[in-house]
Amino acid sequence: MLLFQTPTDSVENPEVQEKTLSIYQLIVDGGLGSIIIISILLVLLAVALYIYFERIFAIKAASKIDKNFMNQIRDNVSAGKLEAAKILCAQTDSPVARLTEKGIARIGKPLEDINKAIENAGTLEVYKLEKNVSILATVAGAAPMIGFLGTVIGMIIAFGEMANSGGQAEMGALAGGIYTAMTTTVAGLIVGIIAYIGYNHLVVKTDKVVHQMEANAVDFLDLLNEPV
């Protein structure tokens, strides 16, 4: 009786080795250019996060105001207690209080002058709220381009090695260089997306405070228009 060996019996199955990707290794293997690009992106990420959290806390503090603030202002102004109204505004640290204080200081002048003073003060308050927010927009636009620059540099280096080897470069080495170079694009996109989301969130929060300022300014002007 003949025994036949199947190919699976005579040939051992080669062990499949899984190659894990280390982010640190990808950055290091990309060479000096990749390290510089990633370092720049990390700095931009740190700047973006600092500006976002610093502004979000500042805007949150600016939006806090006592619901009875305008009622107390109305009572003091109606009673002719302008100094008491000014003291109340000075004790309240918010854009709305500072706008109201500007208006109270000009009571007795034409309503147009009071309105203009409040508008000028409002412009300054909005400028304070938007401090450094434009940097987030810059990071959101610049980070992906910086990442793409790193990828282009990596591709140039990879194809340069192929040209120097007379077209006989190992595909494994080329593939490794290419996916390492692509990490800069991924890093740039991540930083850009984070900065973009943070920027838009701050814009929405700032608009809410601006609307609150406008509503209280209108209430104050209506108070001055009320018949005595």
What's this model, at a glance?
This protein has helices spanning 7-10, 23-29, 31-63, 69-78, 82-91, 95-105, 111-129, 133-164, 171-225. It is mainly α and 228 residues long.
Characterization of this structure:
The chain has nine helices and no strands. By secondary structure, it is mainly alpha-helical. The model is unreliable at 6-14 (pLDDT under 50). The longest helix is centred in the C-terminal third of the chain and has 55 residues, at 171-225. It has one domain. Helices cover 79% and strands 0% of the residues. It is rod-shaped and about 90 Å long. Keywords: Cell membrane, Membrane, Protein transport, Transmembrane, Transmembrane helix, Transport. This is Outer membrane transport energization protein ExbB. It comes from Kordia periserrulae. It is a multi-pass membrane protein. One of its GO terms (biological process) is protein import.
